[in-house]
Amino acid sequence: MADTSHDLDKRRDTSDTPCPAPASEVRLLYVPRRIVLLAVSALLLFVYCPVLIGSYAFFDDYYYLQTFLKGGNSGARLWLYKRYIAFGRVSAIPLAHISFAHLHNISDVRYVRLSSVIAIAAVACLLYRRLTKVGWTDCQSAFVALAVSTMPPFQVLAAWAAAAQYAISAALTGIAYEAFDSGFYRCSGLRRRALLLSAAAIEIISLTINQSAGTYFIVFAAAALFAPTFGFYPRLGHFIRTIGVFFVCLCVAFAVDRVGVRLYGPLMGLDAARTAISLDVWGKLSWFIRFPLMNALNLCHFPSTSRVAMAIALFIAIGLPAYFTEIGGGQIISFVVALVLLVFGYLPNLVAAESWPSYRTQGTLSSLIVLYGFFALRGLLARAGKTDLLGLVLGAFAFTCCLLASLNVLTYFVIPQSIELAVARYQVRQIDLSTAHTLQLRCSRATDSVAPVVTYDEFGFPSSANWGDFGPEVALLLRERGVDYRGLVIEFVRERDDTLVEPRNGIAVIDMHELANYRRRPPLVLPPVGELPYP
Q1: Is the pLDDT of residue 101 over 80?
Q2: Is 343 helix (H, G, I), strand (E, B) or coil?
Q3: pLDDT tens digit string along 32-42?
Q4: Bridge partner residues of 492 (DSSP)
Q5: Least CB-packed of 109, 336, 447, 464 within 10 Å?
Q6: Are 378 and 459 in a shared domain?
Q7: Position 426 in a domain
Q8: In the Cβ-directed half-sphere of 15, how many Cα atoms lie within 13 Å?
């Protein structure tokens, strides 16, 4: 339980001065913080070990691997670089090159996933460090950090190598916040200016890796603002300064994005909606509440439902005012700031014309909801006089999140993608290319997935459902056989019926609709067809 005594409220407002736990708790539960950090990291490696053991790739991984392989298509690599520039993600170019240029085959993609898991562990450790600095105990901070880093958005980042950039970007925001905080409170003069400039540069790099993940800076700011010590209003000034610097960085990243659109925007074709600006404010807010916020309010519950979202929203709405009263903040202004931060945490996606609320873009949003739920629980337990139960409840919740995260990455990524890769590899080995001049690739559909649920282009989604990634997947499998496929004519077939394509003279067929033979029942495809543009 965090110390919220009156004398602590009078102390100097510095987030680098940790609040000591009660003496009884120190005697019974004290563990060196280095040990706690190692334990958190080791536990996350264990939770996400299925993605490290599994030999598979997912979706864009195949395209990236084929593009960056030695002897790969330099034209495709140049197009990918232009695509990053058009999206304002210039700092992601060296990351993509470093991640995939040294791989040799599909099984090597696990090393990129390992880098993503390490970045997720870094996010958890940085959040743990921030929470302990502002007054929460080691146990409470560790449990919250574990829960945050095992939410569905981080499950996607751990299981998808091409999304490792999101995790790295989020980790950089934590480093940037630490530099901001040290620059404001621990240094002066030239050292202070150097720290603040370095922090701004790191945050700009994070935002130009991925704008959605770069907003994770707000999570660290919220953890400091709603701290149980020093009072709400003394911290509000520091929060405003920090968020002000963050928005300066956001404006710089936006300017980089606009320059990229100016240079290569017309080349994006179907992806043009990602680079366009939406002016439909109310429409976007309505979409934000119905999809991204609803998903985030489900916490570790997957697939998300409106009932669970409403129950958790009600719990937070009741508990947060109690917590704000305890820390000495005005209920109305504190609640308004908390709501505004939710919008700011998803701002890049609200500004864009594209309406695609994928889980990988919701890391900031889901982490804020976990923090708010934590604060609400503390407020309700304090009113009931049961604050000694806080650590126990948090521990049970963190354990549940870790268990579900491990099961989800296994059920929706490792097993389905491994089966899909095995089916594609078997068909590639069976075809006779000695007399074929054409290779027909029949893409799968979302309903062919062997996973129980398919959500957006992430959980349970077949990689072969997208021709842009199915083609590289087959090319890599042909490369395994030592087949030179460059003389073949590649055709993509996307029939919507269940009729199998029969091979004809001179035509070899790889039909991924056969995935349906490996499932028990058709998957539940979410969101329902018609509500969102499904690929």
Answers
A1: yes
A2: helix
A3: 889 999 999 99
A4: 441
A5: 336
A6: no
A7: no
A8: 30
